[in-house]
Amino acid sequence: MVGATLENMDIDLGIGAVRAARTVLADHLPATPSWAAPALTEAAGCQVVLKHEEVQPTGAFKVRGGLNLLAGMSPEQRRRGVVSASTGNHGQSLAYASRRFGARCQIVLPEPVNPTKARALRGWGAELVVYGQDMETAGAHARELAGRGGARFVHPADEPALIAGVGTLYLELLTAHPDLDYLFVPVGGGSGAASACLVAASVAPGCRVIAVQTTASRAAHDSWRTGELVSRPNRTAVEGLAIGIGYATTQALLRRHLTDFLLVDDEQVRVAQLLLLTHAHTLAEGAGAAALAGLLSMADRLAGTRAAIVVSGGNASPAELGSVLGARPVAAA
Hints:
Distance between the termini: 43 Å
Structural class: alpha/beta
Largest sheet: 6 strands, mixed
Number of strands: 10
């Protein structure tokens, strides 16, 4: 669908689906904490609220989507299993949910594989297939595998059940902090950003949602700017943001509700990871810190406001952690 226009795309997904997902997830996951980080607020120059999704059993917010999707499948569908492609966190969400619901789960990983995430995927019982050099190639192979064996192919972004499940975190956040001025969200495939837009538009219309992607993998950003699904070079080292094309479902929701879309570079993401570690006692992988990088990039416009970011992705590899410790510390605002 690269090249498709987004202006009149009909997406039948509303806040009711998110509220229904919250009921489903209540039997599986407790609400995660969200609170202010005073030292981070001082460094950023505005009040910063952190939503701590790194405490999820898989270390990332995506587990919400996987559980919601598997909960809605029939016993026969679960028996046939699910297949998807992932750099790690989306795959873990499906693996965790498949283990909870007794389903077979096969995940295709592009190279190079993060050993930390591969270990976690195996731990949750997923069957791993390493194929291709990027998510697009891995995704095509996953779709082929699903077709061969009758399993359900799960798209990492164009899946309403995933978006609704992820939306529950923003329902928690915006219910606990209804007076937020800004919500910064990272974008790879865009399921998290799309769900943030969907929930904010319904329960906190005064909160402006700002998306963040890296300059080295900017397909979602450029799709949103142009109003067409585009492909772009995919060179970021930030695994969770390494997507080279725009996706229809998430882009349509972003077009409706997103306030702005920022680009940061990989080094800014590493600096944000270090700041979370030193100023908020919080470990996040790159995709889980990109929102803070975006916030810092426009800090001069945020004085006197309240902004939130979702900290997610506690699955950084040792090599990534080494690069974070070597990053340049940020100066206080």
